[in-house]
């Protein structure tokens, strides 16, 4: 039995950005759910997505690949995908694997929605 991830897509947009909240564990058994949710968002007129990692406790390489793929698809459509509010564990993971050099990550959802250098994690 795989551990589930809960995906919540904000009904309202913050500064034209769709916020996707993840909770639980993102891995081989659940990454396809996130990829599907991103596909549905990209079918809309907006291509600006922030993924709120506040409640994400674990992410494996398949989950990390999903972030990279989604970021590339958003950028190809003139938008962006950013990660926001990772726990200390998740921030360390993102940094160690070098993902923060590929996908922008921010300390808060608000700073990720703004998309500026302020609050950006390295």
From TrEMBL:
Gene3D superfamilies listed in its UniProt record: STAS domain
Annotated ranges, domain STAS: 7-116
Signal peptide: none
InterPro entries reported in the protein's UniProt record: Anti-sigma_ant, STAS_dom, STAS_dom_sf
CDD domains named in the record: STAS_anti-anti-sigma_factors
Similarity field: Belongs to the anti-sigma-factor antagonist family.
Protein name (record): Anti-sigma factor antagonist
Lineage summary: Bacteria, Bacillati, Actinomycetota, Actinomycetes, Micromonosporales
